[in-house]
Amino acid sequence: MIYKNSYFKKELRQAYTENKISTNRKIAFALFLGLFSFALYFVFQTLQESVLSDVVPEIMQPSFFSTIYLYIHIVIAFIISYFILYYDYLFFAEIRKNSWYLLIQMGYNPVIMFFSKLFALMYSVILIYTVGFIVTIILTFLLKYTFILAYLPTLYLVGLADLLLITILSMTFSLYAKTVLNGRYWTFFTAILVFALKTALGQYPIISNRVYMQNFSTLFNLQLSAYWLVGSVIIITCGLICLFRSRNIAKYYNLAPDPDILPLDKEIVEIDSITGKQKLIGNIVKKGWRGRILDTVTTFLLIVFICVALAINVFVIVINASTPGQEVSIRGVIPFVFSSSTMEPEIEINDLTYFQKIDTQYQIEEGQIILFEENNLLYVERVVSKTENNLIVDIDYYPPMSQIGAMKKTISRQGVHGVYSGRNRWLGALILFANTIVGRILFLLVPAVLLFYQGQLYKYFRKDKST
């Protein structure tokens, strides 16, 4: 039989219509992932002098390690999206549509069918991941970073293991999900589960360390982390569950009810294969409370995203438009993006600082950090001493080989606009990102498009896709 003999090839092209061979599309998808990761790396480089350099230095360094480390996390997000979008083709949802039952009755071995489906999906994942990995390395060569071969195999294995674990978990959950919608929820949950597992078992401190990752055997050191042992047990266990569970449920056939053999006082109920909802055949049923809640939550989240994005843009524009004597004041607080390292460690570069707006009657104390105007420019320095009408200020941080106290100066009390009250490093990084081209697109162009086409988008996502 042609269909029987080409079952493995059918699985390889399953997610695409018209039965076209999908290898070229998978390679194109992999190229996109490599280019997207590389572009995202450049976006992060624009945030070099921000809190991200302290929190996630592994993706901020000028090295092959950073670009590849970023790629192996980006590919997980896209593969999960790919799984969710084509869930009813890629996983075992087809068993409930009697696809396996008919093949088994034709003499096809369910064990062979299981392994064909598993290997086809894993082959696709490995192909996409490997091509994208190679593309990322090639693109990084253009930056002329120092090439260190030692951690490349280790990083490759780390990303591949995560993808294989997510794949086998998604396949296992698909055997127990009664609807496509629930199965997609479980697929998304697998990514969260793997992330929680890596965090709980201390895997991230290992894979984010360039020294550790240059030694391949570090991954399997149980004294550092048991993630690989636990992951291997999960993969083997899920594989066995899938094998026996898929073989058992494939024996059952879901027979559609025949209206001619039903009693006159009975009605036929149709179960939606995607949502699991029931409705009477031939009748129009009003949307249930769950559907209304989902619509309300979706609309609310869309409105919140648009409002927040536009608010961030307005806030950034107003701050950028501030001039000495006309600073933005929000309920007596002056937000100010500090773009110097002169006040470290109290205030770091690109922090969003807050200054309490004061008048001439406010008593400034020695040791306070102030925002003041001099020669039509704004400065932030610390008060070291004061006289009746003047203040002596100085910076906190002098670079090595600099003369301490060289920046000390006397200013007029009348030029002080505010007293330092706090800072937020994350908001500072957000404003820095919002000033980039990508930030402008995300926070201004995308909300504008969503706002203009929200009606069409709503109709698209509400379409019945059960066919």
Task: Give an overview of the whole structure.
- The protein has two domains: 248 residues, no CATH class; 113 residues, Ribbon (Umud Fragment, subunit A), CATH 2.10.109.
- 51% of the residues lie in helices and 11% in strands.
- The N terminus is likely disordered.
- Helix 5 runs antiparallel to helix 8, helix 8 runs antiparallel to helix 9 and helix 8 runs antiparallel to helix 12.
- The protein is α+β, with helices and mostly antiparallel strands.
- The radius of gyration is 30 Å and the shape is elongated.
- A seven-stranded antiparallel β-sheet has the order 3-4-9-5-6-7-8.
- The chain contains 16 helices and nine strands.
- Keywords: Membrane, Transmembrane, Transmembrane helix.
- This is Peptidase S24-like protein.
In total, the number of strands is 9
Largest sheet: 7 strands, antiparallel
**Class computed from helices, strands and strand pairing:** alpha+beta
From the spread of the alpha carbons, the general shape counts as: elongated
Please state how the strands of the largest beta sheet are arranged side by side: 3-4-9-5-6-7-8
The sequence of SSEs as H and E is: HHHHHHHHHHHHEEHEEEEEEEHHH
Distance between the termini: 27 Å
Give the integer mean of the pLDDT values: 80
Unreliable parts = 1-5, 15-20, 282-287
- Tally of DSSP helical segments: 16
Radius of gyration, taken over Cα atoms and rounded to an integer in Å: 30 Å
Strand content: 5-15%
Helix percentage: 40-55%
Multimer state: single chain
How many domains, in number, for the residues?
Answer: 2
